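Bench log, entry 3. Co-assembly request; chain sequences pasted below exactly as received.
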Amino acid sequence: MFKVNLNKLDRSVRGFIGIGVTAFALFNGDIINDVFIEVLLGIFGGLNLISLVFGWCPVYQLAGISTKDS
Amino acid sequence: MFTKPKLTRQASIRPRLILACLAVSLLVSGIYVTVSYRLAADVNIESERRAMSQIISFIANIPLSDKQRSPLPDREVLSQIVNTDVASFIHVKSTQNSISSAFRIDSSVSKQLLDITASRNDDDDAIIMLNDRCFIWLRMSFGEDTITYLKETTLLDVTLRLVAKRLLITSVIVFWIAVWLALTLSSIIAKRAEEVNDKLEELATHDSLTGLPNRLYLTEILRSIVEKKEDNTQQGCLFGVDLDKFKEVNDSFGHSTGDKLLMALSQRILTVVQPPNELMRLGGDEFIIWAPDLTIAQGKILAQELKNICDTTIPINGLEINTGASVGFAHYPTHTTSPETLLSCADSAMYKAKKQRSGWEVYDEHIVLSNERDVMLKAGLNEALANNELVLHFQPKVDMRTGEIVSVEGLCRWEHPSLGLLMPYAFIDLIEHSGKVQDFGRYIVKQAICCAASWQKEGIRVPIAINLSPYNLLDPGLIAFIEQTLTQAQLSAHFIHIELTENETSLNINYIQEALEKIRRLGIKIAIDDFGTGMSSLAYLDTLKADTIKIDRTFISDLESNKGHRAIVSAAVDLAKSFECNVVAEGVETKQHADLLLSMGCHIAQGYYYAKPMPEKEMKQLIETGILPDALAL
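Structure output for the full assembly:
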């Protein structure tokens, strides 16, 4: 299922964003003050972390595209 | 090397779709930010005003004893009620007097503010902007008293900050989702479009029957040559292949057999046309092969191979069919430096091969020159008929015994404005293949009749013979036309003879026979021209009931040396006698010819020995003076 469809750059950029966003969602202190937005950010960051871990992007899979060097 | 041509396509829709999705997400975010901001601001203002209205009510409800002293409480009292940390201003207006109290506001500013509130209705905008400061105001009336409360507020800024922070984050997420959506959508759409485009390109550039590339594909190839014209090293051969008897196959066995033949043949041709060479079908039985990097010598080898492969039998529906093909090719850039004319060069070569039944031919400039002349003549044909550029020249038929001119043969000449006087062989073929053969026949008939009529008026009573081909006799209105023209010219039909060339034997002989019969009934005499060379001379003689036979010049030219020809002429003379026909010898060029013919019993001759074909004026002169005695055989 998790067929790798991201190349190194794509994967690392997503990983970077994923870690950043998840961390921000968890430890933003009083900046956001809104659980809903924090949850949204969490999901968003989580998806990027999945991309980092598996090198797989669900949207790419749906769209049938891949940045992985063939 | 030539790269495979591709149809030009529009740029991918992906960037546009992504851009559109981003624009939409931006727009949506913008709308939501605005609406949320206004909503939050309204809610805050409402709650603020509610708090202010409580303060005003409190002030209004101060016990009466105090109120009589002053409608406004002391500043000390007020400072406990209102928040003195922010600039605020309270104004009470009663019937007797008005009093106000301001915290952290200059008197000039407070006056301005009071003026502004005075000009507003109670339900107007609750916010007053003055000198970049933002005030919220409320006015309430209690009996005769009107209390106005103004308070500086940073509410909007706070609201904006709150809203902005959250919306910024959600906007980023929305943005991200929009990009993903755009990517997904564009990929799906682009994929579908690509599939459809591929299919369309396949359909547009390939022939549906054989699956071979078609004319459009060829156009693309030729275009790619144009684009790479600067590259001097490139060369190639373009072959035209046309099946010789495809029409017969179609007519005899039906189109489905023809289609099967084309499919089978294209497969066979493909065995000798290997990539990078490309086989295309332009339609019908016309194939084109583009062979890049082929020299003329290599092209000749391939042409021979193509000819051989097309000359094999193909089994279809239990039949062994062999159509044979003619191949012509032209080399780029030797034969033409213009890719556009390459195809017509290859075609010319192919037509030459077809004409000469030589199998294959290389392009030769002479073909085009004569073709160009033919095209020019064909185009000028209409005008020639309208402007009477086609004229009759005459050659006499002479009674060799007396030198008397018994009749003249009218021979067509084209007085072409730029090419000069053209002989029939230069244009008769064109006429017969131009669809004007019947117009031309009538034209000649008319010319001859008019000429004979004018001669008669001048006292020259010599019949004029004209040549008609069986094609002309297929003209259903010809006989009526002849009759009508004769009547108009008041000419007796005896002054017109018709010589029938018998080169087309496949035409409907019954119909021709019928037409000739009708013509004879008008009183016109019929002669068979070029007797002895046609396929069915004897049958003609019997069925067409000719009045005269004209022995072909080929038998006459070597009469003195060729025993066989002498025998043929002698037999023809005897045959004519038996059929009670006159006999005329064509192509009599020497005295020996004339003597021999006379000795065989042939008395009438036509040929250079007596006179060449000449214009009407000279002919009339000759008829008047007669043939010179020294030219007579006697």
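The interface with chain A takes residues 165-166, 169-170, 173, 176, 180, 183-188, 191 of chain B (CB under 8 Å). Chain B has three domains: 15-158, 215-363, 392-411+435-627.
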